[in-house]
User: Fold these one by one.
Assistant:
Number 1:
Amino acid sequence: MKIIDAKVIVSCPGRNFVTLKLLTDAGLYGIGDATLNGRELAVVSYLQDHVAPCLIGRDAQQIEDIWQYLYRGAYWRKGPVTMTAIAAVDTALWDIKAKAAGMPLYQLLGGKSRRGVMVYGHANGEDIEQTVEQVGNYIDMGYKAIRAQCGVPDLPSTYGVSKDKMFYEPAAAALPAENLWSTEKYLNHIPSLFEKLRQTFGPEPHLLHDAHHRLTPIEAARLGKALEPYCLFWLEDAVTAENQAGFRIVRQHTTTPLAVGEVFSTVWDCKQLLEEQLIDYIRATVVHAGGITHLRRIADLASLHHVRTGCHGATDLSPVSMGAALHFDLWVPNFGIQEYMRHTQMTDEVFPHNYTFKDGYLHVGEEPGHGVDIDEKLAAKYPYQRAYLPVNRLHDGTLYNW
């Protein structure tokens, strides 16, 4: 079964997505997500100019060989652009193989390890009271796990807080917006949010929080220790992970579970974190970590060290990624949780899919493949629009981590 065409589709149904469609001489096609938030066109060029010409004529069934060809054969390995492009090809090939087998993708991976995929939603508010209200709304919708973010006094904007409480999109400006940040104000405020949440809802709902790479190790240790009485499911991205050893300091001072990895592109980005058991959840994704083929390797290494998966699932991943991730989640034995930020109706119409939400879980359909397609005619009605994520500055003007 030969690959005869590789189409790169760019569309903006409310936000930018890059989609790869591989067609074969058997009449089957596969879909892969290639979206890299704020750097979408870099992946478009990588695919169109460098990857697509190498795919034509190759056997679509040779997934592992094609993965190695694109990774080892490039010589310049790793990095988010390269690995997002490889992921798109890999996801599309798994989609094709599952369709050829007449099976839903999870069956090819080894079958179900669970009946459904527990997901968490995003509750946020301008202040503690609003966030408490939004957490209640998510509980009413059936969520068993909720990420809670709230505004910080005297800061005009805070990561994770949006005007639209259901559809949060931070990449919303043609040039990067500049936000103001104060670690001191944040650290003094956030424990009060979770104190109020536990007072209101008790111990039952799983509560999560994202520090979004803004803390030093000792600051993260302080926050983790302050949050211990409220039994968080996890504290996410407490520290930037370029220096993986930084998590040792956090680990030495708190028992709050730690999660990181949405920006990781290979197993090498998390090798030390996993081997030294410095985290509890690995958040690498299908689309940014080389596809299902490579994410399986990350999950297998994690399982040896008591680390569970918690894949990133924000709206900068298209429904194609979500569909593939859910098949992966359904199979992977050391599953923890799956992030689920709902896409807009406009996005869902461009990417028809068969996964459904019920009582805190996502469920995939039984159709062959990963269950997500793209309406190319509708996608063409939404042309690319340049959009950047914000940046942060401290009060003295120093550029900081967003």
Number 2:
Amino acid sequence: MSHDPSTPDDSDSRQDSPPASSGFGTRAVHAGQRPDPTTGAIMPPIYQTSTYVQPELGRHLGYEYARVQNPTREALEGNLAALEGGKHGIAFASGLSAIEAVMKTLSVGDHVVSEENTYGGTNRMFNKVLSRLGIRFSFVDSRDPDQVREAIRPETKLLHMETPTNPMMRLCDLGVMAEIAHEAGALLMVDNTFATPFNQRPLEVGADVVVHSTTKYLNGHSDVIGGALVVDDDALAEELFFVRKSTGAVPGPMDAWLVLRGTKTLHVRMKAHNANGMAVARFLEGHPAVEACHYPGLASHPQHELATRQMDGFTGMVSVELGSGERAKRFVDRTHLFALAESLGGVESIIGVPALMTHASVAPDRRAFMGVTDGLVRLSVGIEDEADLLEDLDRALKGL
């Protein structure tokens, strides 16, 4: 269709993203996107292509090869950067590949201080893969800043933190961690998967890199595997883009589109996850069959005061101690709405036993040291009706 010169063309005045001062929900819906210039499609198209035709040798239209550039992926990256308050979003094929890309900016002999109670896959990658390549790791309880300081070496280049941790729901003070890292000339990377940027934005308090498994809350519908990094520093972003281009851990365009679809409702879903998580935690804390309930939103949580300062909400992740593997098995086998499965962060509720599932690859003595017992059960509380969730748990706990 030809353009009518009598009609003002304001397309150049339209921003790809709403102003940074816009509310979280506005950024979730609009950031990184604009209507398709050809058709006006309000959702970014899925650019399902591996390569791009170039008008002539030495000149292209901004895209050459899909491992390096893809418009659907770029829309997602702009969206995630806006939600975390950073300048650069970098999407990956999984959360682990995002963490691995940061590790690939290091060299033989470099040292990393990591929270000890990390996701089991992260622990496995650090201990059984990257350590063989000459990168050294120290694992500490980051609830105690002194332990982190004592683990710092001259060759320390990175602090890797998870808060809340998986599955014990421990917290570290992100502002203090940033001070420790920067005093040592190191970077601070924070896995923000459990909290999401709706509840916590580590870059605002000094973190250098935020990592997500976009598989979880950001996508929210249990239908994609993905990961992402968000950074502010231009040089660091350039290096991470180079690592991704050189190693190839890119998400496909359909995966990027699915995560982008998910982030549009993140603010709505997280309000429900936060509310249901609190209701479930309060119910479990008071149940006679439960020995301990781990949830930062509870006043009984030892770091509740830090949680209220550092977080805007406490997520839908809850862990409970039932005392034995047998009791844990009976509990998870008897729920109906809470599906026994790996993963978390979907609209549906999920339940699992970390010692036999997400943390099975962690050495038993290390699991015991972290408090991940055979009787620990982790719940990802979905957005179903609160009364139905509580009834499901109550029925499953009876007789324990």
Number 3:
Amino acid sequence: MKKQGKEYRSVLAAALATGLVLMMPLIAMQFTAEVNWRPADFLAMGVLVFTTGLALVFLIQKGPNILYRIAAGLALCTTFLMILANLAVGLIGSGPNAANLMYAGVALAVIAGCVLSRLKAEGMERTMYAASGGLVGFAIIAFLVGAHRYPGSSVAEIFGVGGFFAGLYLIAGLLFRYDAKGIRLKQVQGKI
């Protein structure tokens, strides 16, 4: 009975946080024409925020140790920010274009890697490295096909965005590596 109450509170907390986040654009729409969300936008953002929040709560409660929780939280937040930025403005060029689908592929690969690895640190490490490498590869592909010529895009932007997210996934992968090898946070802090 106690476990069900805790799970219910977790779902309720994620739902309330989602509602608060969705209130921001709803309120902004009352004061400016710059914010113009359709119902589909609210639905997509609601699903994204709710599932990310619920996953974050799950990780905090069920993660085996602090190092794993930090790594998983970083991976989750990186994926969330990448999806959010891609939906909001597109990561290559201004607005929607086919090149941005590459980033959706990375997000799907991360989700698939998490499922296939059963959230074990070793598998999560490999998943993070694959995501990082995929982002670097996509930046190179985007450059080679001339995506830097799209309106609102540049070489620095393509490699900067790809490098930023690749770096975050790489850090998460290294944290998972430390966890998989049994190196605990106190041992890591002692070496710094």
Number 4:
Amino acid sequence: MPKFFGFYQFPDKARLILISMAAIVILVSSVVYVQAYGKQKPIYEIKTDKKIVALTFDISWGNKTPMPVIEILKENNVKCTFFLSGPWVKQYPEIAQQIKADGHEIGSHGYRHINLSNLSKTEIKDEIMKAHKNIKEVTGVDANLIRTPNGDYNDQVIEATKEVNYQAIQWSTDSLDWMNPGVNTIIERVSTRAHPGDIILMHASDTCKQTAEALPTVIKNLKAQGYEFVFVSDLLKEAPQKE
């Protein structure tokens, strides 16, 4: 961690403020921009009174963090949705197969970890379908949910995903574990921001070094609040039907 952040010198509340500000700066040039100027949106959450949440994990890199996360989920009898990148699935097929064997839901995290909004519609579809092919070959799953790389999208990205029978999934609670902000910060963010119909963003890539340590307490706190963990696909079924 760069020393100039000096998070270790600040109390948790001050650290959380600094991290949130940094996250805004990082995202404003990509995700926030396209959201502001796009008309079509992915799914961020589902409006419901039921105390259900979808815990989700993106994986694009490495084989050290995924297995501890998978074991913690098994120990706590929690099922969740994993969004897996196409190249990663091919590189670590045994982990992807374990995720499937443990009964978790598998979605796509695309192929190259690039902003799809910079591509043509044909190129977007190609990225999605290359990842789809890898996931199918390794796990046998015909994925139909995608969390786009970096959460990036515009109208064309959403249109392209729909045209290849995918649904784009975002999140309404970001754990910020991808910033390695401190275990307590991850726990506090998820535990205090979770709400009925929430889609919670976490990561199981090796770049996220604090996720596994924070996860048991995150699960414990959400269960104590009365939340049930469901797949994203099950959460979508709770969406109000349009008349």
